[in-house]
């Protein structure tokens, strides 16, 4: 890891004595910012050098790895009722304390699921920005480029205009001005062959179809992801499709008690687990949730009942 930062440091050192056409602001963008972002990527991804992303303290050494994975993928929480407590005297850590019934909890479920959703949104934004910038670069001809090519291919060969040559002409003109021997300004009409445009026109046809298909698929995936976040029925339906109707007895009792992050983890487990083992897991998970809910109800009843004597 230190060697990686050593390589980066070579690009940070200022280089004096060279002719530069840029200025300090430009260098902040293309040198300092890019190096800073690259350094952040190395820090975030080098988990094996700087420790684990989450380390949960509990009493079971056998379940250490499973607990850490569960808490990282699902939701951890703090308790706003303890935010104003004095750390070290009234509470052990800021925002943490005994989990009493009916106590407000603030869940921090952005570790995986929200990052996943954010990446999907950035994917969609990325392809739309690419379409927009390419359209500007091609003088606002790119958005209809593919449809024009399709229409051109379907028209009669005798009465059609090639839209590819409109954007990428193969033969163009150029006017050259030069002074003659006696000082008069001469105008030369030149003909230029742009052989590269034969390749460009095909490349941008492919790019048009690629961007359109990619934008449609990414947009559909984003709508699907937002639907799973906002509509609990869709989350239940997806788990049923994953496991079949035999899971209904467990899912009906589990789904209402899970937030989006918990559901996402449960769905990912089902994708990578044998169906029989997954059914046993759901059975025990539903039983554990019911027992936990029962204990919370008992504690709430004891707290609300009048004290004897």
TrEMBL record:
Example GO molecular function term?
gap junction channel activity
**One Pfam family, short name:** Innexin
Q: PROSITE patterns, alphabetically?
A: PANNEXIN
Q: Where in the cell is it found?
A: Cell junction, Gap junction; Cell membrane
Q: Which GO terms describe its biological process?
A: monoatomic ion transmembrane transport
Name the keywords, alphabetized: Cell junction, Cell membrane, Gap junction, Ion channel, Ion transport, Membrane, Transmembrane, Transmembrane helix, Transport
Q: Which GO CC annotations does the UniProt entry carry?
A: gap junction; plasma membrane
Q: Which residues cross the membrane?
A: 28-50, 112-133, 207-234
Membrane topology note: Multi-pass membrane protein
According to its UniProt record, which protein family does this protein belong to?
Belongs to the pannexin family.
According to its UniProt entry, what is the function of this protein?
Answer: Structural component of the gap junctions.
Q: Which PANTHER family match?
A: INNEXIN, INNEXIN INX2
Q: Please identify the protein, giving its name as recorded.
A: Innexin
The gene name on file is inx
